[in-house]
Amino acid sequence: MNIVVCIKQVPGTTRVEIDEKTGVLKRDGVESKLNPYDLFALECGVRLKQQYGGSVTAITMGPPQCENAIREAFMMGVDAGAILSDRRFGGADVLATSRTIAQGIRKLGPFDLVICGKQTTDGDTAQVGAELAEFLGIPHVANICRIIEMRDGAMILERDMPGAIVTESVRIPCLIAVDKDICQPRLPSYKLKKATAKREIRWLSLDDLDDRDPLHYGLNGSPTQVKRIFPPDHSREQVVLRGGAELGDRLFDELRDKKFLQEF
Amino acid sequence: MAEIIIHPEKISDFAAARALCPFGAIGEKNGVLEITAACRGCRLCVKKGPAGAFEFVDDTPRPEIDKSRWRGIAVVAEAFGGKLHPVTLELLGKARELAASIRQQVTAVVIGYRMEEAAATLAEYGADRVVVYDDPALEFFRIEPYTAMLEDFIRREQPAAVLVGGTPAGRSLAPRCAARFRTGLTADCTVLGIQPNTDLDQIRPAYGGNIMAHINTPRNRPQFATVRYKIFPIPPRGRNAGVEIVRPPIPAGGLASKIEVLKVVEKPPAAMLEDAEVIVAAGRGVQKKEDLAMLRELADLLGGKLAGSRPLAEAGWVSQTHQIGLSGRTVKPRLIITCGISGAIQFVAGMKNSDYVVAINRDADAPIFKVAHLALVGDLYAIVPRLLERIREVKP
Prior knowledge:
By secondary structure, chain A is of the alpha/beta class.
């Protein structure tokens, strides 16, 4: 089974603040790390390979320093890595990102399964997987909480839906997005770190892809535009009230306004 | 090509210029500044950098779409077993508001099996038109048939904007369909507005809620936005007189799927206190064990759980598994209402990260008030019965 795992390098912390005066984002410790949700996707990929044979390739898109994410994937037992890196990929929204990754995956050769994590910690959209599957023309299933087995050319999976666990069979090739805690990701192995330190990574720029129209990538290929970014309103001041039964009315209003009474 | 061009002659301090970028996308190579692939296109460098140092240029002639051909706000209803998810009604309320400001229509689309009742309800909550795709093969959410139906709907109706609930199904369907139309999708919007030219103003949190982003989709239609449950209020129920219910034919081949639903096992309601979204916590201010019934009723009405402070657990009034605090459970519900709890440090440690804390206590100096967002200084025996009365009025 040929497995592709999509990973991303994210800022080491989400504790960013915006300087109210200048509007500039302040980030403490600009260090980057592998998106924590991707560890579960990598672990699933490596386990499936161990069970069914084949190989696992990690693919990422980003600036050159995202090589670290691929190196970390190697330390978990991933066989090969590819990086989509090109200045012209910069400024990509969900659509342009998915399109770019789909183009990259096509260059890697035939695959049976693409695994994504639940979401990233910086963008938080959890929507690249679905768009990627559309570009690849394969079915996708998200919220996977258990991979039962691969049988007769299909993955048998459990997905965690509100109110129910749904068992599904999905024919391969397909894309799955796995939940956090679907498994316990292994720690990076020092032995593998040594063994893979010089392993070659495949670098892909726009010129290496089948679709070389620069208007399909990065800022140019992104229908959504960020108009501005600003700090959230944290001004949740404390309200103190004294009284008798009328406070019950006040609390009712508060619960209604905060939509705690909308359960059906 | 749209890109950011650097004019280094206008920059005196390279380090300061590089620090402008929140994404570290201004690199330096052999003493020359460059924009790297990490650029997100936020253009903060253009706005905040030295005058003229960073220039955004876009000289690409792009086909302008005719926005007047894309009209109205569409809401994608979510229903399972014929029952609508409340997020759908919340979206209808918002869609109504947006549509009113541009004087256009709200259309709801519902995909599923046995959707007559759901369609009627949509009409009562503000849809001008309801489009129904009803087929046994649509009983369970499977991505390919659902995308095919939504695609058919969009081609027929040409809505300016499509609002989808940020539920697991919606978060699969919206991006899949947005990619099919090669258009923009903004996830988890918390604020939505609309301009006269039907451009949606979408505001969403990023970086775990530490920054907010205002996003537009100026050149593509339809504009997709997802909104999570309980962001917008449910509008009042109205009458459905004159609402048109349309049942287009199922598009050819639209039901094909490589996914087969083998089994659906309903989950028991959250058994663990830690999983409860709402908690009513009782403390020593509760005089008799029987009085807990009142608080349990409140918890039930709010879809939550009853918990207690340590003295109540020690007295056996609540079980050990429902004790909050250092020696009990640590909870982080969306709402916690503490009743007659003074707020010893051990208790507060177990609940202080809750999203919204309401504290009811007679003692104005009780430490619990330090962590309360809403501090009600008064008698729980007066406040809670009145609250219950009011909630019962609206909850049949």
